[in-house]
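Handout, tutorial session.
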Amino acid sequence: MKLKNPIFIECLIDAMGDGNRKVRNMAMSALMDFGETAKPFVEEAANMDNPVLRASAIRVLSITEGKESIKIAIKGLESTNIKVKSAAIKSLRKMDDERAYEALRSALWDVSSDIGVSAAGALSNFGEKGIKVLKDAMIQAKEERAEHVLRRIAHGLAEIKDASGIDYLISALNDDSWFEWSTPWVIANLKNPHGNDALLDYLRVNLLEKKSQPSQKIRHTARVLGEMVDERVIPLVESAIAVQKDKKTLKDLIHLLGTRVTELKDKESVIVLIKFVQSNDYNISQRAGNELFGIDRHWLPEIEKALEKVEIDSKQDRLLRKIILRYAEH
């Protein structure tokens, strides 16, 4: 945009506070083209009360001004609005500066778990310098017995495959007051035997032993099985599907078998899906069939081999016949 008229800049500033993300992004991009002409307007917006506008302005300044915008980003962390604080952290994670480290360290104690976890992740982005800040903060949090802070720090360390805080992540699984949905994935991505044991034990208890309907947290945690490499996963999933009555949980469990085929090239999951297509439970049979239909064509040889071993009852296995016909056509 070549126009330098302040009127156009003011219009773009207003657009940065729009409720539509696309509009905001277009406005931010245009303001960057104005360069120094727009700088004072953007700086003013970064201190306004409108949280959406303020967050957008902080993002623009972090891109155009770099370290020069550090004071505005740090001030953003003092906001009570999570969007503003989130934008501030995204800006600070790009600034290799002692002031950024200190501000992010303080944010580990933020009232919002999301902000604390984001701050830990930002610090881990700075390599050895950031790790030292996290380790020092861990010592303080232990002294204060601040379990929630220790979990946030553990999240940050896990991003660089440091499992030293894994026990704090594991303790979060059974804490219903902990709502950070990425925790199970962080544990799984560490590929730590202790972490795998904890995840499988947690799911075994909640999917097989407890009679109550699984919570959203339990269902979400179960999805990590779709990408976990462990010989105990398939037996656990089979048993859970056999006893589970909750339709949402059944859907998730069967879908993760399809995910294992796609992500892990897991042949055993193909066989298990074919087995469940033959189930007398219509809901299980249909969902398993849908997952098989969605499997990529390059799996055709494996599916054909598995289907050859299946005895078909013409009265019960119509869905299985459809699958056979579909793959036979190719």
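The second record follows below. Compare its token runs with those of the first.
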Amino acid sequence: MGSEETALAEAESQAIEALEPRLWPSSRWGDAGLNVAIYLALVIPATFVGLGAQLLVLAGAIAFAIHRRRAWYRSVALRRDIQLALASDDIGEATRLGRRLLEEMPGRSLAHTVAVAWWGGIELRRGRPEQAVEVMKRALGTGRFGGRTGRILEAWRLNASLSLAHAVLGDLDAAQSQLDAADAQVGDRARGGLFTVRAYLLARRGDAQEVVELFDAQWRSAEPQLSISGARAARMLEAFALEQTPGPEYRSGSGERLDKAIDRAREAPPGAYAYMAVHWPELRDFLERHGLK
């Protein structure tokens, strides 16, 4: 790495470290208490000083609501761009957009809490599963991802990402618990979106034959519900499992199937699967052996 690249990497690292104060989302109950306090502080005095003050308070409340609404619209647009970057395995662009999302969203807001949750997913893809788990658990701990709001926010995606982060770390019980939570939240029309996480967890447990059976049973229906990145990662896991699956019933014709899976996996840019193997030497060896690292 040249001096210019080193300097850029150090600047990026410092910029990310500077985000730490923004990675503490507020709970919905804390925000409710703050809103009540602000309301009382503004409205009670206004009742004693006349209509002009009351109108001023009303104007301020409307301006505050408009500011939050605009921030939410910016959040939606930025999250869409992050999703596209992650789907194409452009982690550098996703990181840049994720930093912008955190920096632009007003504190003590739903938009900020969602930004923290998305940053956890980015940290996972950057190969930092420990940080990913910590940040995503903070977001879930706010209580904002349950009930109707959770369904609107597609909270199953957050639980799925947290499940994958736990599995990458080798904490398979926690990974299964979060996968079960995601499975309970996701609707039938989107259930295929959990396919790659499910396959990874099975493979991490050493259940290679079950991974192959999962593909046989669900791949055709799941593939259209996955992002490009998720589909490529799934085929990489299929290839990994095929290499380890004993028995003639799976070995028959598996050479061609293995080649097709690896060819699809090779469509990803270099390093796209590295985050999955940071604590898994066997997968790391597989990636190196097939030029997928």
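Points raised in discussion: The chain has two domains: 1-144, 189-293.
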